[in-house]
Amino acid sequence: MSASTEQEDALVTSTDPLHPANLISELCASFYNLGWVTGTGGGICIRTDDKVYIAPSGVQKERIEPSHIFVLPYPQAEPSPHTDRIFLRRPKLNLKESACTPLFWNAFTIRNAGSCIHTHSQNAVMATLLWEKEKMFRISHQEMIKGVRIGGNGRTLSYLDTLEVPIIDNTPNEEDLKDSMKEAMEKYPSAAGILVLRHGIYVWGDDWQKAKTQTECLDYLLEIGVKMKLAGLPTVLNQ
Ligand SMILES: CSCCC(=O)C(=O)COP(=O)(O)O
Ligand SMILES: [Zn+2]
After folding, report:
1. Do both 127 and 219 map to the same domain?
2. Model pTM greater than 0.95?
3. Pairing between strand 136-139 and 51-54?
4. Residue nearest atom 6 in ligand 1 by C-alpha distance
């Protein structure tokens, strides 16, 4: 092994379970069990001060190993959907970085996020269908609203706040969601996530713990919102 390969591999090799490469493997496996990243879709990325750790595309996300992780320097020119990116480390296997990379980058540059999660949860997909006309999922008076942060990185919402999550249209290629996701994040600075019609949701946070907590709270709220709507109950109560 050349010295440079050894140095590159050291970026994803650690006995620390909290190293981003170990965390991505572990979290993707647990997200799979929640039905969030089945069929290879979805995932999580983690950003430190100067590096971004990203999983491969189109692989069984619950079986990712730390050696499969890509490492990119941060900051770097916005990885647009169809241009080359700079890598500090690529896996030896013939893998490509997640197609979600430009979307994850939106969360880093627009919200200064330290982590972003993309799920294909059926709760998210059902919510996009039931709130398709409004282009906005809305729910109030639920305890779990208190686990969601304004804009994904601000103070937590109050029980008396109404949660709003914008819905954008899907595109045939994941990468092409970048501009409409950016537009929605800028138009709705308080939004803690972006739903994608018939596809899923993107949620971010200051770090992986906050991104995970908010994804769990949002998924819970989407699930109960869908159940309430199907039961004919209003999801928003008058204050
Ligand atoms: C059946 S997955 C379709 C593509 C998709 O929605 C997705 O999230 C892909 O993510 P990847 O990290 O595998 O590029
Ligand atoms: Zn997806």
Report:
1. yes
2. yes
3. unpaired
4. 41
